[in-house]
């Protein structure tokens, strides 16, 4: 199966955009938090979970999605949001807690929501799977060929919400795709100490009408191809899929994480497997793009990010009296 050149170029540019976005976010988040780490200080307060290294999971499947398809993301959401086409300026303003943000500064980085492109960040662990299953059920009831995707970490597969949602999705043949990003760590617990199966795609055999896919070594092209098949069968009404991708978290579970659970050489070894460099080399070696053409794509991506951060920094904070406005219980 060949991948169209325009899709590969989009994937490359989107991964670069996501990586650069989070590099700037690290800088902004670190402001005011040194020399002693203070989670409440600086222009971006609160906990911060970043996804550098995990970009292939997002671009591989979002390359097949439209604005009518739903994406539910967990607490590490930025690469998913960027790949789904969430408004970059308003997302950044939301993370900075500004009134121009997606949620008027009330949600922050863990509760991003953009109905224009059917994107939501359901919060921690497996919370987004039932939301995605509900969107998949709505699509089926409306007679649409829409697909719903839930991104989760490998630890979330052990939560009840995963099994409950998969059971109903299989029973009703819902167009639900669960993407499991296996970065080997559930906070500080290794996968081998929490999960009694090597790869979670094999859990698909427990449910009728469900197919499992495994993507090795964080490969964006393999992720694209597995996702294409999963999306196509979902649109045909053939039922749900589970895609597990072996991916790599370059940073800690959260910013400020001392990462005492990791071996000293783990991250340097992972950095040699950078998926952005892998795709770049493929594009050049296959003569699909020149270094100058890729540099242009990189510059365009970084420009968009720079504009978004400037917009967020220049935006106003909400007034105190607006704290209870637009809040629904």
Automatic annotation (TrEMBL):
SUPFAM superfamilies: Thiamin diphosphate-binding fold (THDP-binding). The keyword Oxidoreductase applies. Its cofactor is thiamine diphosphate. Keywords: Oxidoreductase, Pyruvate, Thiamine pyrophosphate. Residues 46-319 form the Dehydrogenase E1 component domain. Its EC number is 1.2.4.1. It comes from the Bacteria. The keyword Hydrolase does not apply. GO terms for molecular function: pyruvate dehydrogenase (acetyl-transferring) activity. Pfam families: E1_dh. This is Pyruvate dehydrogenase E1 component alpha subunit. It comes from Mesobacillus stamsii. The lineage of its organism: Bacteria, Bacillati, Bacillota, Bacilli, Bacillales.
């Amino acid at each position: 199966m060949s991948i169209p050149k325009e899709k590969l170029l989009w994937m490359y540019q989107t991964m670069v955009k996501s990586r650069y976005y989070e590099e700037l976010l690290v800088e902004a988040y670190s402001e005011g938090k040194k020399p002693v780490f203070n989670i409440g200080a600086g222009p971006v307060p609160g906990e911060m979970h970043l996804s550098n290294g995990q970009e292939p999971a997002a671009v591989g499947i979002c390359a097949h999605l439209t604005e009518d398809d739903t994406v539910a993301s967990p607490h590490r959401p930025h690469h998913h949001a960027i790949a789904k086409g969430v408004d970059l300026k308003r997302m950044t303003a939301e993370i900075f807690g500004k009134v121009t943000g997606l949620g008027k500064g009330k949600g922050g980085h863990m509760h991003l929501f953009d109905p224009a492109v059917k994107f939501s960040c359901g919060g921690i662990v497996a919370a987004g799977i039932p939301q995605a299953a509900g969107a998949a059920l709505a699509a089926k009831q409306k007679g649409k060929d829409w697909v719903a995707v839930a991104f989760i970490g490998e630890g979330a597969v052990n939560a009840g919400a995963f099994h409950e949602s998969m059971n109903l999705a299989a029973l009703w043949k819902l167009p639900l795709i669960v993407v499991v990003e296996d970065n080997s760590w559930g906070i500080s617990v290794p996968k081998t100490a929490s999960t009694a199966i090597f790869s979670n795609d094999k859990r698909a055999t427990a449910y009728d009408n469900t197919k499992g896919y495994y993507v090795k070594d964080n490969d964006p092209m393999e992720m694209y191809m597995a996702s294409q098949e999963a999306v196509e069968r979902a649109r045909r009404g053939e039922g749900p899929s589970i895609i597990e991708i072996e991916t790599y978290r370059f940073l800690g579970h959260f910013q400020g994480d001392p990462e005492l659970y990791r071996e000293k050489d783990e991250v340097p070894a992972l950095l040699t497997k950078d998926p952005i460099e892998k795709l770049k080399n493929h594009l050049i070696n296959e003569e699909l793009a020149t270094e100058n053409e890729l540099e242009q794509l990189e510059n365009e991506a970084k420009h968009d990010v720079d504009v978004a951060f400037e917009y967020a920094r220049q935006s106003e904070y909400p007034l105190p009296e607006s704290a209870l406005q637009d809040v629904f219980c």
